[in-house]
Amino acid sequence: MRGKSNARLNRQFDRLQRRIPDSAARLLERLRQPQARLLRIPLAILLILGGIFSFLPVLGIWMLPLGMLLLALDLIILQGPVNHAIVRGTRKWSTWRRARRDKKSGR
Known about the structure:
mainly alpha, 80% helix, transmembrane, transmembrane helix
């Protein structure tokens, strides 16, 4: 099961890297390397805290899933729940965008 969760997590990262600017994708690729663990864990915690306090200026809710993804690289117990939440959230987001688009076009 661990291999399946890890592969799914890597697919989530690959998908994210395709959607973000090249400079951010290169940084994320470096953070995914095993030797970046000492930087990755504190950064993940800071991102999660920033996501929790997204009502403050500059911080945003986008920080929470990114922090969870980074933390899941090191905490195997989080891989399953994070994968499930990201996949489910992505589906709901797509459904919401599709419904909004259809509403605008009058379908």
